């Protein structure tokens, strides 16, 4: 991918900012659209001087008129704390946002990729989760605004492909972590690392036996770009994640070991509808993208710990939880 004009929505967020950076490195022009709901200007400050980078403050629930070759749609709060703060806005971002961007893609005949999520599988009854699995989602629970919003966005993408022959791509992203995660978004990796670095109690929700599979952000970004580069007939959905599966208790113990922390583990109530297990079946990604996640959890956590350690020293107020 080179010399393309590319729109990245949610470009000032955790994953979006890394994607913008990588697309610029590859020699593309990037328009980053973001309403700064959870994103931060600090994530993209270093890109503002680049003449091939443009930042537009805009909420994707409203129409958008730009001319590009490709669209990566990442705009949407991703952590439970943030997406549950204003559930209606989360649904509007997923649904109205998708309609606007699909309408835009249709008008200019651009390729468009949707950042979907493993949450479309809900609390899965099939393990690991292949793309064929339809999921087990509560339509009216605390997580529904996100889960059902993202499911509807997939349906919209699919409908524009069927009806308008639009070149669409859907990736289902499993838990991804790395430097630039927001210190306050309550996700398990950032929470545990910040707690451990400050020798505060590590908060495990429930018994800690629930599992997640953690993908390092560089692996994820590589897979998204490969997906965008697939032939038109490859629409997805394709799971992207690291199949290494860990209990939340194992994650806590690993973070304590890697930080040399004196933190104690404490229990907190399990939020409702919290999925009990999650692991991607990545056979499709391996076949279609010639890709698999290569960063082991231990290595990715070491980079992420170094990032938060520096952030705590340089910007302690930003890290207050
Ligand atoms: P993030 O919260 O850091 O980034 C989301 C970005 O979207 C932010 O910059 C936010 O300000 C912006 N945004 C939100 N609503 C918007 C709107 N209406 N208009 C314009 N911008 C808006 O989250 P992230 O972890 O970088 O996630 C990026 C995408 O990847 C999301 O779509 C998320 O659902 C998806 N995803 C992430 C993960 C993960 O583990 N990080 C897992 C599955 C899916
Ligand atoms: N849209 C947009 N930018 C464009 C073209 C369309 O934001 O360049 C929006 C437009 O506001 C519309 C939505 O995309 O609400 C869906 O467009 P589509 O053409 O599919 O449907 P229609 O305009 O017929 O409702
Ligand atoms: N979790 C936890 N302690 C925390 C934050 C999260 O035990 O401080 C648990 C949470 O209940 C869930 C898992 O860790 O079972 C992953 O949570 P996260 O919010 O990171 O992602 P998601 O639930 O959306 O996969």
Automatic annotation (TrEMBL):
The keyword Flavoprotein does not apply. Its cofactor is NAD(+). Keywords: Cytoplasm, Decarboxylase, Lyase, NAD. InterPro entries: Epimerase_deHydtase, NAD(P)-bd_dom_sf, UXS-like. GO terms for molecular function: NAD+ binding; UDP-glucuronate decarboxylase activity. Residues 6-241 form the NAD-dependent epimerase/dehydratase domain. GO terms for cellular component: cytoplasm. It is found in: Cytoplasm. Its main location: cytoplasm. This is UDP-glucuronate decarboxylase.
